[in-house]
Amino acid sequence: VRCSVEPMLRASPETLQARFLRVRAQTEALCAELSAEDAGAQSMPDASPAKWHLAHTSWFFETFVLSNTPGFRAFRPEYGYLFNSYYEALGARVARAARGLITRPPLSEIYEYRRVVTARVAELLETAHGPTDALRALVELGVNHEEQHQELILTDVKHLLGQSPLAPVYCSSLPAEPAAAVSMALPAHVFREFAAGLVPIGHDGPGFSFDNEGPAHLHYLLAYALGTRLVTNGEYLEFMRDGGYERAELWLSDGFRWKKQNDVSRPLYWDASTGELVQVFTLGGPRPLALDEPVCHVSYYEADAYARWSGARLPSEAEWEHAVRHEAVDGNLLETGRLHPRVLRALTENQSFGDVWEWTSSAYSPYPGYRTLDGALGEYNGKFMCNQMVLRGGSCVTPRAHIRASYRNFFPPETRWQFAGIRLARYS
Amino acid sequence: VRCSVEPMLRASPETLQARFLRVRAQTEALCAELSAEDAGAQSMPDASPAKWHLAHTSWFFETFVLSNTPGFRAFRPEYGYLFNSYYEALGARVARAARGLITRPPLSEIYEYRRVVTARVAELLETAHGPTDALRALVELGVNHEEQHQELILTDVKHLLGQSPLAPVYCSSLPAEPAAAVSMALPAHVFREFAAGLVPIGHDGPGFSFDNEGPAHLHYLLAYALGTRLVTNGEYLEFMRDGGYERAELWLSDGFRWKKQNDVSRPLYWDASTGELVQVFTLGGPRPLALDEPVCHVSYYEADAYARWSGARLPSEAEWEHAVRHEAVDGNLLETGRLHPRVLRALTENQSFGDVWEWTSSAYSPYPGYRTLDGALGEYNGKFMCNQMVLRGGSCVTPRAHIRASYRNFFPPETRWQFAGIRLARYS
Amino acid sequence: VRCSVEPMLRASPETLQARFLRVRAQTEALCAELSAEDAGAQSMPDASPAKWHLAHTSWFFETFVLSNTPGFRAFRPEYGYLFNSYYEALGARVARAARGLITRPPLSEIYEYRRVVTARVAELLETAHGPTDALRALVELGVNHEEQHQELILTDVKHLLGQSPLAPVYCSSLPAEPAAAVSMALPAHVFREFAAGLVPIGHDGPGFSFDNEGPAHLHYLLAYALGTRLVTNGEYLEFMRDGGYERAELWLSDGFRWKKQNDVSRPLYWDASTGELVQVFTLGGPRPLALDEPVCHVSYYEADAYARWSGARLPSEAEWEHAVRHEAVDGNLLETGRLHPRVLRALTENQSFGDVWEWTSSAYSPYPGYRTLDGALGEYNGKFMCNQMVLRGGSCVTPRAHIRASYRNFFPPETRWQFAGIRLARYS
Amino acid sequence: VRCSVEPMLRASPETLQARFLRVRAQTEALCAELSAEDAGAQSMPDASPAKWHLAHTSWFFETFVLSNTPGFRAFRPEYGYLFNSYYEALGARVARAARGLITRPPLSEIYEYRRVVTARVAELLETAHGPTDALRALVELGVNHEEQHQELILTDVKHLLGQSPLAPVYCSSLPAEPAAAVSMALPAHVFREFAAGLVPIGHDGPGFSFDNEGPAHLHYLLAYALGTRLVTNGEYLEFMRDGGYERAELWLSDGFRWKKQNDVSRPLYWDASTGELVQVFTLGGPRPLALDEPVCHVSYYEADAYARWSGARLPSEAEWEHAVRHEAVDGNLLETGRLHPRVLRALTENQSFGDVWEWTSSAYSPYPGYRTLDGALGEYNGKFMCNQMVLRGGSCVTPRAHIRASYRNFFPPETRWQFAGIRLARYS
Lengths: 428, 428, 428, 428
Known about the structure:
three-stranded antiparallel sheet, alpha+beta, homotetramer, four-stranded mixed sheet
């Protein structure tokens, strides 16, 4: 299987039209090696078929960008029912768990749909005076939306392939890992200190952000310290060997119940059936567990229990954001093509962006002063602000242009199929 | 969409090899118009993807016929895990509800698997002295097994397509229905009388039968009468209009609870969203409800409630078998290519075979003296003899060569996605 | 705790009034040692509080016997809602699983309800010319109905007390068991032979019977043989030690799934937490497992698997009935006050009646010619004739006057809290 | 039924021993009119029987106060298994949903248990030099713990009685409501303004508090405004009449799904079966809905949807606490004996304490710097800090001595059986 994650060439500065076309092409590149069968199956209600992602991201542009343009005609009116994700304001839709049953239209028609939508949006952006601000805003939202689904395509395909006893491979040419030169030689964890004080939080300034990243506001922080790197598989194994999954005092009450009910005793994708030599399923197929890689595919409950076991805690999202506010966005993101967390390459690397999303101790709530957008787009973020935890920093399957210090990802605490891991914090 | 149900030419008498090849080809013909996506999706745990049926029927020949031949090598050893249905003696297997996640191997490889298996079995049958009795018996079983899955392919594809809001069509060239010349002019139901007595039941004589059809034995019947035709949609509508679904006194206790919990108020595939003009989903797409067609896709609970409402009852399987024992097997079976029940064409037609499976009042139990086969094949029928009801007579998607008077089909009483309907009985 | 099961003196012949009064008093005697708390709790949806049984059996007489008498006034009109079991024709009622929430009216009021109903029915029976046939029939039904609930009171109280870690005792003065003098010395199982032929089945003649025991009819039996005694705990232990619960080939498909889902590996009430020395919870508290006692509290699935393991099978209900048709009703029934199965006392004892209900291989279906009664009483038996298996012979908590050769008890195959065990059969 | 909520006389200042004895007596007074049946039943897994509360609060003192004193002997060792609520460090315990099955020991023994524990703790407090600080701290915790269970006894008994079709009464002598003189004449809602700034949050200073109320810390607030009174039934009815329960745009995503799955269309305990004249079930039995009373028994989801509909929002817990920080604790608390929210008596009353717990928009998270206690008591609060929302202010069934400005109550967002209502907030 040829590796389908080739970084798209990116002009600098890039016009909105160029960015739009690049992102659209990137999505298709990610699916290039998936058969119609691979692209059609749904492995669990939380995951969606790649075909659905391909269609839904086009429906998003069609609905929010194209439908108000003169002479608009829907590609196929039924698509609103099939490919609306969760917008109540836009009417009824296929039940989430039934997305894998949409065998008609065929995948080929979805690619045609993409072509038509891409061409029409690109044409809109091709004007003498440049697009209006309103159009720019909607296309930028659509592009960022599509980048979110690029990550979901990879997490969902991984989950699907991970069900199979045949250990199928999404991409056989993933780069080999470098020898672990650094991390295990470290004198355990190093923490960087931050002083107490009132700090700015939230997105401010130019550049795209989602509504949930604002308004920018002040937040008072106690003095704290943050781990300079991510927790590794080797460290997590120590927790496991110390009975971490059986010691109730380390767990939240909901977490311990979840663990028992679902018989969880190791991160997702770890196959312990071969005894001590743990195999890990990756998008490049099964590999032996690399002790120095960041631990990945753990739930909030596991991250929280690990932190408590280690004598530390998880950072709040404000602590995290304050610490990385002035860091450049760089790291093991989608464009490295690894599609897997990477061992630390230097003691100066702090893995803030990429590798794994970092669970924070913060429940996903509106920022002070937050107001949802009007209309259907008001449903984009605001209606999910309950029963979820915030994750920060992006992962090895997040596009680089998509992530920033103020970015708030969110999932329910039991979520494991996302590339999520652990950074420690403590009070000074 | 071209109609893929073309009756295969059938020599008479047909050698076992010819029958084997014809049945294998027929299975593929039924799937000819299904895309890889259509063939891969699973609409509910009880239904399987067409692709799985294509593979499983080949695995059956490979496992029970080929694996004991000299020089045997499995096509791919993992297929045992993927395509074993329920044979505990043959090891672990994919969970039933996860058959839709087998996107690898691709459908094309399954067709290759079929070609290899078909060729090798055909070769085995091609001997100077003819196959041994043991080989004949296993191939006959495999052929009958494959015919069962032909019916399941059609019921399962219908269920999958029936989920879609787009009303997709399995086959667009189904024959149009003749005008209803007869049934509604009938003076209601006519019953044929049978005298009390000790009668032979069960398969006896030459020709293939499943183990659950024997041993042949004696059974004492009271005098009874059997409806000369099937209950129609129009008659069933009267039951509905008389509040049949709301009148607890007409229902079994389990049935009334099932009805409430599942909010059932009409046969499966009836779409009443358009008011009085009921649309029915068929393998040829939606059609207006034809009042004179046999009612179809009802559960045992509904059949039983209808019978009670009409002042009659369902026949026992012995009553049914005694009545049709000497009838020729003819009717609206798979080979008519209609794939849907048919209106009565003459008063002399009694619809014993084909159209719809007829729910009987008999729980599925072993016949007196029944013993299961040794080995894995002992699991074929015997281990299901609990919590199921017997159906008789075959349906419009049953191959003609497959059905006979002694044939016992069985499903749990809440089953609706099979082509099942109603014949009435009463005591004389 | 004083033993509350004292056999009531029984005149012979006994008038209907005397029988009525004796049965009513017996019910109360069974509950004499239960506190209001014990009598009010419901340990699972299938079981009911003793208080509910006390009330429901009175409601039955009030509804079916008293409500049509001149000047009738309900004791309290709301009782129809609270204490109707399942009669749809009589209106809405408390959900089955919520019977334990009826803390008002208090238990004392329920006893008052009983006194009022008992007095009024007794008065009706006290007429110069004797009760009418219609009245007799209804009172006889009510008396038999109440006897069924006597058994349920004991099975349901056992289930409730069995939940407690304190091993509470229903009755501390149960008779000690005699030393096991006989059974284990037997040369395994002995089978009694019966010839093939057309035999009469079902209740015929005078004396009360339930509608499901008729009509009497003919049934053809193959030659068969029936175990002369029940299967013992010691024999069942051998099945367990031979891996019986893990060997799929011994089980029905539904049964093996049930076993896995419910993690079943021994009969209900066996406590194996102490290792080899199994403790068994009884109505007299925990006791060491007695190897020679009949095994009890097994499901149909377990009984069927055991029979298959032993090379035999379960009898059909017709085989069972034919064998005991002319036996006197005697054995370890409620009146012995043991409330637990008893070891075989002599080789000539065949344990047909009492000790444990015997699972048969027969699904619970209507007999040929069966018609339900008119009105609400038609719901008594007929509407349950689906998804249940027939048990025969009564148990150690069945009143002697209640059981007979034609008596058909029925429960779903997974039922374990009834006193149900195993008798073997085979074809000759 | 005599009203069992008589305010206990309270000396001022009150010694710890006096407070202890008063609280213990108050708990028993609340249960004085409950029969053993009423006290034993459990209406849902989230609620516990009053008997269990009576025992558990004693077990708490026995375990945390008495068990370390010289010569300690447990009242009954099994009680640890029966009456431990959720302390994993203290071993196995009865499943939460099975608390209603503890019919033995009887209620009378639980009262004896209380007497023994009360006497022994009182004796410990009766020392020449006064109790040690450590003992004081544990007894104070036990007293506050018992006050929490007083509230739960009333919410749980209300839920149990509310299941009954007989509309039973916990207390028939509840005070009649005054005529509604004020609220509906108000010009809608009035909001009090608060300036932005860094404010102190959390408990600080002497007096008991739970660990989750600290550490005291600084928090930055935007300028905001808080409703001066609670939302009333009449106002909530307007929301309902405006289609509030059907308009997805008003709801959180989880909330709308919860509403549909549970078929919620009005507050708990509102009986709309009589049409417009809504009956409300109270601890004094059913009453007509009083439009001017604060709305009660709504979930967080309903509170949030109402707030959005009204153009406002729910306050954060910091906003709430800052606003009431200097208010005296007064209001319709347990000691008024009303056991039901009360209409506003004067425009100057702001209902901050008592009447109903007020849902805040804050997820229940640890305060900055929070550390759990060592040992089993560390499980008291910390392990629940996930998936719950904070409520503030106490209710009509909260003891006055128990509530304060910094008090944090918490429940999952779907909770309805607590006395919880709505106060509005908005940004200035």
